[in-house]
């Protein structure tokens, strides 16, 4: 009996160990209130500093949200998008899809304020995740609790951006594959695309749909022809400077209007229109458009938490950068 009990006890302890390890890898070492002991005021310092900028320039919310998204899709949420290029390496920051990112000065200001309070404790990756959440919340978008404990990566490579980051001209198959590679499903794709309810785009992101869709000087048949006429008034071929609202009329407001536009075939990018090419993503678009976004805020919060856990570095991995644009 003694041996049997010992064996059972041993097996039980092994089972607990397996469960602990799998649970740890599921949560990936992130937790709410991670800085509670090491930097108790971290989250309020970050929130106050972010508010200083967003209260003066609410349009910064969109690029800051986008920056977090662009960070997480390349190498995971490790702050690699914040790193400057060096003499020997061109970083993600200088890739064409990231050249239109703005708001680095907000991240730098937040980082320096946090460093004054708690030197070397709070990562740039966590700051980016919190600033994105706070910015959206400050323009009356949803609020979500951000599990923390991300560490900063030391590697940032330009070419990885093109391989990992979904392009504005991606089709539904490519989009679903790229999201699936990050552990995000078709619903997450439909939900996170709703982030296009705020912000602007350069004409370059969609003019092929207006002037030369298949290389024969034609327009994209999946786009409302009346909308094409309006966009042509704003964007001439080869225009690289003009900015266009992604969600005309409410591009500063975090709301469900994006889905109403997509449902009317007025999504700005091919990747927006593509949501109508899959039964699941299309059903989500129609649901939000027809119910005034009944579940959008809740869904967006959930998908953002999920995205914020993609490929994170925790424990002893990576480092805590002193300056977000430079490795230590």
Automatic annotation (TrEMBL):
One GO term of the biological process aspect: response to oxidative stress
Domain Plant heme peroxidase family profile: 29-328
Any one of the GO CC terms: extracellular region
Ligand binding (substrate): 166
Molecular function, one GO term: lactoperoxidase activity
Catalytic residue positions: 70 (proton acceptor)
E.C. numbers: 1.11.1.7
Pfam families: peroxidase (PF00141)
Site (Transition state stabilizer): 66
Compartments, record wording: Secreted
Segment forming the signal sequence: 1-27
InterPro entries, alphabetized: Haem_peroxidase, Haem_peroxidase_sf, Peroxidase_pln, Peroxidases_AS, Peroxidases_heam-ligand_BS, Secretory_peroxidase
Binding annotation for heme b: 196
Cofactor(s), names only, from the UniProt record: Ca(2+); heme b
Binding site for Ca(2+) 2: 197, 247, 255
Recorded catalytic activity of this chain's protein: 2 a phenolic donor + H2O2 = 2 a phenolic radical donor + 2 H2O
Superkingdom per UniProt: Eukaryota
Disulfide topology: 39-118, 72-77, 124-324, 203-235
Note accompanying the cofactor annotation: Binds 2 calcium ions per subunit. Binds 1 heme b (iron(II)-protoporphyrin IX) group per subunit.
Binding site for Ca(2+) 1: 71, 74, 76, 78, 80, 92
Keyword annotations of the record: Calcium, Disulfide bond, Glycoprotein, Heme, Hydrogen peroxide, Iron, Metal-binding, Oxidoreductase, Peroxidase, Secreted, Signal
Function: Removal of H(2)O(2), oxidation of toxic reductants, biosynthesis and degradation of lignin, suberization, auxin catabolism, response to environmental stresses such as wounding, pathogen attack and oxidative stress. These functions might be dependent on each isozyme/isoform in each plant tissue.
Annotated family: Belongs to the peroxidase family. Classical plant (class III) peroxidase subfamily. Belongs to the peroxidase family. Ascorbate peroxidase subfamily.
Protein name per its UniProtKB record: Peroxidase
């Amino acid at each position: 009996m003694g041996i049997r009990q010992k064996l059972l006890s041993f097996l039980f302890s092994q089972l607990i160990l397996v469960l602990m390890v799998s649970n740890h890898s599921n949560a990936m070492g992130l937790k709410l209130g991670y800085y509670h002991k090491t930097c108790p005021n971290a989250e309020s310092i970050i929130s106050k500093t972010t508010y200083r900028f967003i209260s003066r320039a609410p349009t910064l919310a969109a690029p800051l949200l986008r920056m977090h998204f662009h960070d997480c899709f390349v190498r995971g949420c490790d702050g690699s998008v914040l790193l400057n290029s060096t003499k020997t390496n061109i970083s993600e920051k200088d890739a064409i899809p990231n050249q239109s990112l703005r708001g680095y000065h907000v991240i730098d200001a937040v980082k320096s304020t946090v460093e004054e309070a708690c030197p070397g404790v709070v990562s740039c990756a966590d700051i980016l995740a919190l600033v994105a959440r706070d910015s959206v919340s400050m323009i009356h978008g949803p609020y979500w609790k951000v599990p923390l404990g991300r560490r900063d990566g030391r590697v940032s490579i330009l070419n990885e951006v093109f391989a990992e980051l979904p392009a504005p001209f991606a089709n539904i198959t490519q989009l679903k594959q790229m999201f699936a590679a990050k552990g995000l499903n078709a619903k997450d794709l439909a939900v996170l695309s709703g982030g296009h309810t705020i912000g602007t785009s350069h004409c370059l992101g969609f003019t092929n749909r207006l002037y030369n869709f298949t290389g024969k000087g034609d327009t994209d048949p999946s786009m409302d022809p009346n909308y094409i006429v309006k966009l042509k008034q704003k964007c001439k071929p080869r225009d690289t400077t003009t900015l266009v609202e992604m969600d005309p009329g409410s591009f500063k407001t975090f709301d469900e209007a994006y889905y109403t536009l997509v449902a009317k075939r007025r999504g700005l990018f091919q990747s927006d229109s593509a949501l109508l090419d899959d039964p699941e993503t299309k059903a989500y678009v129609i649901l939000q458009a027809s119910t005034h976004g009944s579940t959008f805020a809740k869904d967006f919060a959930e998908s953002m938490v999920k995205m914020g856990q993609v490929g994170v570095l925790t424990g002893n991995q990576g480092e805590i950068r002193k300056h977000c644009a430079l490795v230590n």
